[in-house]
Design goal:
- It contains ten helices and 15 strands.
- With 375 residues, it is an alpha+beta fold.
- The chain has two domains: 11-324, Double-stranded beta-helix (4-Layer Sandwich); 331-366.
- Strands 1-2-3-13-5-15-4 form a seven-stranded mixed sheet. A three-stranded antiparallel sheet has the order 12-6-14. Strands 8-7-11 form a three-stranded antiparallel sheet.
- Helix 2 (35-48) packs across helix 3 (60-73) and helix 9 (327-352) packs antiparallel against helix 10.
- The protein is globular, with a radius of gyration of 22 Å.
- Bound molecules: fe (ii) ion.
- Fe (ii) ion binds at residues 135, 137, 296.
- Residues 347-362 have a biased composition (Basic and acidic residues).
- Residues 13-310 form the TauD/TfdA-like domain.
- Residues 340-363 are annotated as: Disordered.
- Belongs to the TfdA dioxygenase family.
Length: 375
């Protein structure tokens, strides 16, 4: 999918070559009013993996609308909606921060809950290795998330940063031989994160669909493609890796091969700073990321209160298309198309112009923004 240019009047800064873009001087509530801007935002998130906005005034209703509208703008299935988290929901019987139970489709991500309920499990900063917990949201659902929209409301004085890693770039760290070996493979993805709490609280996860009719039941596992095609960019990304297969395995490989491959994919995510971006939060920041193509984790290195509202949109059933490209090949193809279009335009203009105006027009053609290339 191609950008229309509807967001080009807003300041944007690419934070690294491979992942992360920061917007400035715009409220998401403005973008929400404009269909073309929403669509361009979804495409930008999918291309850049994660985008950031500062100082956002966002009601819960706006927050939910943005999350649902982003996926819809780029064609998610009509029966995909917002995710109702199995525990972090508004029912009041689960983990929500005592101070608030906002909405069934809004998770309150709160350090209070982590300390209160998950004591000695995750909030023990010195015991958590940096390689632990890299995940995409709802990887364990049959129909997992496309976009997450996180609104940070309370931040500790220091610490609690979030890191994201590009799945597109992880794929490109593999040799062509390993890429071919993993293309088309599938993995059992499962989470054990909520099992002990479910049993402890005798809770059935609320039954019913969780953003899609296919997302139900108490068994939080799904078979997902190891290499996933992002339908918005057409690019290949490593998807079923890291935390998603910590308790699962790649189906087509032997147990011994799994040991090697699982460990290697995790290393590619955690050992390559060039495919990561890190955000230090300030109050009212919003981050939006594409769960199809990025992994993320939080640093549990803080002492103070940290609280955010998170809305997770459910997207399409994950798939792998053999015809999809790596990010670099996709970008190279787009550049070649743009160059071809520019040359065609210049030639056409030359034919129509007299000699005296030709040089001036050619200069203008080269400066034209080229937004409509195809992959
Ligand atoms: Fe997450």
């Amino acid at each position: 999918m191609e950008l229309s240019g509807a967001l080009s009047s807003y300041a944007q800064e690419e934070l690294t070559p491979s992942i992360g873009t920061k917007f400035a001087g715009v409220q998401l509530t403005e973008i929400l009013k404009d269909a073309a801007q929403l669509r361009d935002l979804a495409i930008t998130v999918s291309r850049r993996g994660v985008v950031f906005f500062n100082n956002q005034e966002l009601t819960v209703a706006d927050h939910k609308s943005i999350a649902q509208a982003l996926g819809s703008a780029v064609g998610k299935p009509q029966d995909s909606h917002l995710h109702r988290h199995v525990l972090l929901n508004g029912s009041g019987v689960t983990l929500q921060d005592i101070a608030e139970a906002v909405d069934d489709e809004v998770s309150v991500v709160s350090s209070t809950d982590r300390i209160r309920v998950m004591r000695n499990r995750e909030h023990t900063k010195s015991l958590i290795p940096g390689s632990h917990g890299w995940h995409s949201d709802t990887f364990w659902e049959k129909i997992p998330s496309d976009y997450t929209v996180l609104h940070m409301l309370d931040v500790p004085e220091i610490g609690g940063d979030t890191l994201w890693a590009s799945g597109y770039a992880v794929y490109e760290k593999l040799s062509p031989q390993w890429q071919r070996m993993l293309d088309g493979t599938t993995a059992l993805c499962a989470t054990k994160d909520y099992d002990h709490l479910r049993q402890l609280m005798r809770y059935d996860f609320g039954g019913g669909g969780r953003g899609s009719p296919e997302n139900s039941g108490t068994k939080l596992e799904a078979i997902q493609p190891v290499i996933r095609t992002n339908p918005v960019t057409g690019w290949k990304s490593v998807f079923a890796a890291a935390h998603a297969i910590e308790h699962g395995y790649i189906i087509e490989l032997t147990p011994y091969e799994n040991n090697v491959v699982k460990e290697y994919l995790l290393k590619l995510i955690t050992h390559n700073a060039d495919l990561q971006v890190r955000h230090r939060w300030t109050k009212n920041d919003v981050a939006i990321w594409d769960n199809r193509s990025v992994f993320h984790r939080v640093n549990f290195d803080f002492e103070g209160y940290r609280r955010a509202h998170r809305v997770v949109s459910i997207g399409e059933k994950p798939f792998f298309s053999p015809n999809s490209l790596s990010r670099s090949d996709g970008l190279a193809r787009r550049r070649a198309y743009e160059l071809e279009q520019t040359t065609k335009n210049a030639t056409h203009t030359e034919q129509k112009s007299d000699d005296s105006s030709k040089r001036k027009v050619e200069t203008n053609v080269i400066q034209l923004p080229v937004q409509r290339a195809r992959l």
